[in-house]
Amino acid sequence: xxxxxxPAFNIDETRVxxxxxxxxxxxxxxxxxxxxxxxxxxxxxxxxxxxxxxxPEIEVLFDDSEKTIKIIDNGDGMNQNDVSxxxxxxxxxxxxxxxELKEGDYKAIGEFGxxxxxxxxxxxxxxxxxxxxxxxxxxxxFTKEMFDMETSANEIQxxxxxVGTTLIxxxxxxxxxDQMLDQFSHWIRDVPYLTARQLPEDExxxxxxxxxxxxxxxxxxxxxxxxxxxxxxxxxxxVDEWKILxxxxxxxxLYRGVFVQSKEVSRLWGLExxxxxxxxxxxxxxxxxxFIDDAFTEEISDFLEQVHPIVLEAAIDSMKxxxxxxxxxxxxxxxxxxxxxxxxxxxxxxxxxxxxxxAFREIKTFRLMEENDExxxxxxxxxxxxxxxxxLAPSNMNKASALETKxxxxxxxxxxxxxxxVERDSSFMRNARFRNKxxxxxxxxxxxxxxxxxxxxxxLAKSLINDHSTVTEIYSDNPRIPLVKLGSDxxxxxxxxxxxxxxxxxxxxxxxxRDICDRNEGYIGLLSACQTHDPDNVSDLIRLxxxxxxxxxxxxxxxxxxxxxxxx
Amino acid sequence: xxxxxxxxxxxxxxxxxxTMRYMVEMFRDHLEERxxxxxxxxxxxxxxxxxxxxxxxxxxxxxxxxEAGEVQEKWGGSSKHGLEEDISVVRPEAEWFIQHxxxxxxxQEATTLWRPLLRHRSDHNFVIATTNYDRSIExxxxxxxxxxxxxxxxxxxxxxxxxxxxxxxxxLKLLKLHGSTNWYFSEENDAVWKLRHPMPLFGEIxxxxxxxxxxxxxxAAVLPSREKRIRRPPYPELNSEFQQQPVTADIAIFIGSSxxxxxxxxxxxxxxDNCATFLVNxxxxxxxxxxxxxxxxxxQSASAFLISTLPTALRQNDVIxxxxxxxxxxxxxxxxxxxxxxxxNNSARQDRLDSIDRLASLQVSLKKEExxxxxxxxxxxxxxYALSLLQESPDREELIxxxxxxxxxxxGSEFAxxxxxxxxxxxxx
Lengths: 568, 429
Prior knowledge:
The complex is a heterodimer. Chain A is of the alpha+beta class. Chain A has 17 helices and 21 strands. By secondary structure, chain B is of the alpha/beta class. In chain B, α6 runs parallel beside α11. The relative contact order of chain B is 0.10. The chains are: A alpha+beta, B alpha/beta.
């Protein structure tokens, strides 16, 4: 040993041991594995910068019988100075850990790249065999005893002759070993020059790979970020992936092919894939819930929001393919309509929205309520009707108020264009932001290409019903029974608040009045006459007459003469 | 204008006086209480199989059979025809029966029927002729304290007066062409008596009136022995008066008569030639001998005509034109009952309302005397219903003022509301 080498730790053992033992760290096995691989990647990266004809290689070997994990890279290796720096990093890291722990902040513990410290999470000792170009090969054994600040690292026989580093983790517990093996493919996704095998069977361990079923979009130069080394993001390219959309973007953040974290950004539906981030910009911290600091999280979200319109535009093709292949049938119109209604309509999405509207133009996403029938129609068919005005009925007529229902009936009888929309599927894409609940709501945003639309609500219903001619009334008490003119193709009677209107523009309405005059039996006669001439609405009348106790409502001969003259 | 109004059996039918045909059926039922021979009843039954056979025919047959018996005896033959005994019983019973039935007239109903016409006695010169025996016209006139010239002087303090005949005075004249239930014939001095209080005669009675000698009286109603009695006073004078009417009348109206009687028909024919002639009959059907071409036929009941149509016509500038226009307006339903019910406080409320309804629908014209009590009724529905009678009333303006006051006193009421409607309707009309 030369002076100062191998180095020793100069840290408070007690505090570090506290950190390293127990259950304070979730996924401690994951951290060690990631750290080991990332260090190997870094080493290869450094060598790549130095040598043009260099082909990096990293090999990970899981030895079931030895319970060891070897990470062998042909990176730039380390000399004695590098090893000393490593120790210094460990010391600085450990000191910082102490400080942070004093403040009781367990979240932001550590810094990714703490290297040695994380290895001790899974083993009591580990070996480093490393050879740097132009330096002697070094073999070091690191043990936990080194935290006593007295014990030095041990030199061991270096097993390497070629430039690079071999890290051998002697895993302390079987469950640590199993965990690292199980999680290997989760964390190691896409390191091109890395191979992994399991011994003694020598079985290949596959990397996790990138998110599949994504059609990456091309991001314009002006949208690119310097910390994004590679963005493989885009819309799902298979209808099965569309089916599971929850309204959020799901992007894997990778560091040189190593999985860092899955990023979910709500409202950015249809955006899937992987982001490879620049390690210089990226300094992930080890903590309980996430592996990235909050500031960087925000930057990723901002970037994804920025490219979302591009992704949605690309999504149209994917959707069209699904439609052409008739894959919509087993999914249902409502889900597609939900997707359509989730398209944002802000200025930055205006082109995208237009493309989506165009794609949905021919799909029957509305219901035209005709006088006695209802049929599905598309936006194009609605425009072909060329109505002066479009009335938007409640999408669920079962939940419509009585006034709304009457207004819709009147409008239908008049031959007006009454549309009922298809409601979005509320259980689908829950994290997306919707301004509209039904397709008819969406029409409000297509005003430029449509005639005036008007929603059928209680206010319209009242004004519609009030927009008539009241001729006279049969009874002026509670309930009031006026004779109105609502058009010959309209309802015979309609209950409006506490009144029962008789439409004398219809033959049935006139017959009803005639019968009331002939019977002249007060409200009882009115009820009987209504039962005869408009049985569908007699229940409304019954409700109105519920509180009537005194039925001295005889019509005098003058009144009856007048009423007969009115209806003649 | 001089107006001849002839009323036949149809004019008293609504007062409960049956036709002669119906009367003979009633009489036949009445006779079953008597101890008559089966042969007689059988003969009577056979006579009744002829639908035209009526009470007058029955008595006529009896008289003819009696005469035949007398003649037979003169020629030495037996006067026994087997039914003498029965006829001797039934003949006076028939007279009594007719008088009894005809005296069933209710004074209030008679007044309601004839008062509307009698009110116009000052406006026009009326001659009312009838072959009916009942006293409905006299009772109505008496109720209204109206003096009628019927050929008898006024009673004054007397219970009975004798025939004096007609003079040429203008005024309401009543020609009871076939007599009356309260006229009695005295065989002794050939006088015809009219009694203040008619009594049923059965055979002959002896009447002792204060300050006068005893008088034996027989009923002077003309029964089918027309051939015998029509030539006896006062019938010739009555008939003469009647025959003269077509010469001077401006309007002749024949109400409720089939005109089967040739004497009546001859006057009708003369009227058709000389003046505007109207036939009033719900069915509008007449025997072929009646020429209806030159007359105007009104398909109306006697009550609808007398209570509503004629009084309304009499208020018009052109009475004849109005009556002719009414030929287009059938009013075949009788309205007497409805008028009685509507104006009777003792009638059931709903009946009164229904009656007013019908009167309004028939556009019956009533005077304010009938309407005001309804307008001022405490029953709000009666008040409301009464509004419907204003339009046709000759006292319309006055009634509207009364109704206006009532409406102002009850703002927001159904009466006020319907009154407003009425004013609108009347202004449109």
